[in-house]
Amino acid sequence: MIENLKKINLILQLRKLGITNYRILSILEKIPREKFINQELFYKAYQNEALPIDCNQTISQPAVVAKMTELLEPKKSFKVLEIGTGSGYQTAILSKLFKRIYTIERHKILMEKAKKILSNLKINNTVFYYGDGMKGWPAKFSFERIIITAVCKNLPIKIINQLEEGGILVLPLRYDNDQYMTKVRKKNKKLYFKKYWRVRFVPLVSGIN
């Protein structure tokens, strides 16, 4: 009962922040965020805040997850490339809105944990890859949507090359000393940028761990 009240309160907060997509709000309410965090933080699962996970990474606050998902303009027939699996929480949300999720994680511990959690939740439309996200997906695929869950100073060329014409990329971008959630649309081989919320993400780095 208390958990349900916490979930309802969180959804109301997200609505106040301008998240209006009913399907996304409904999915956030159904996906158990506590499964993606350490047990001692369960009491914070439905608070709108980022929380620490393994490998000095974080699980983003629900509002940021919801907004980034909304900016992707989900369509069930699309496939998505996710750079930075992390806890797997964003992956789980995407899995309910898109045909297939291709997700890359550079920390093996995180990837294995996320795989297990999603498997337990019976989510089976996700393909995992342990590798360097800055290099994009290893096969010559292209994607209608791409999401990067770590902040970049510049757009990684290999990732941009995998974004289809007419596609959308959502990521945190660095502007001077600030980070902003940014939507990038590829149209006529040009990139169009639009800034949204000010955010705080860990940096996108190369290599594996």
Descriptive overview:
The protein is an alpha/beta fold and about 210 residues long. The chain is built from 6 helices and 9 strands, in the order ααββαβαβαββαβββ. The strands form 2 sheets. The protein has a 7-stranded mixed sheet. It has a two-stranded antiparallel sheet with strand order 1-2. The longest helix has 15 residues, at about 1-15. The radius of gyration is 16 Å and the shape is globular. The model has no long low-confidence stretch (mean pLDDT about 95).
Q: What descriptors fit this protein?
A:
209 residues, alpha/beta, 6 helices, 28% helix
Task: List the topology elements.
Layout: H1 2-16, H2 22-30, E1 51-52, E2 58-59, H3 62-71, E3 79-83, H4 89-95, E4 100-105, H5 108-120, E5 126-130, E6 143-148, H6 157-161, E7 163-175, E8 178-187, E9 190-199
Parallel strand pairs: 3-4, 3-6, 4-5, 6-7
Antiparallel strand pairs: 1-2, 7-8, 8-9
Helix pairs in contact: 1-2
Entry summary:
This protein is α/β, with parallel strands linked by helices and 209 residues long. The chain has helices at residues 2-16, 22-30, 62-71, 89-95, 108-120, 157-161, and strands at 51-52, 58-59, 79-83, 100-105, 126-130, 143-148, 163-175, 178-187, 190-199.
- The oligomerization state is single chain
Number of strands: 9
For the termini, the CA-CA separation is 40 Å
Taken in chain order, the helices and strands follow as HHEEHEHEHEEHEEE
Low-confidence stretches: none
Q: What average pLDDT do the residues reach?
A: 95
Overall SS class:
alpha/beta
SS field, number of helical segments:
6
Helix residue percentage: 25-40%
Radius of gyration, Cα only, in angstroms?
Answer: 16 Å
Residue fraction in strands: 25-35%
The backbone outline, from C-alpha atoms, is globular
| Major sheet: arrangement of strands | 5-4-3-6-7-8-9
Question: What composes the largest sheet?
Answer: 7 strands, mixed
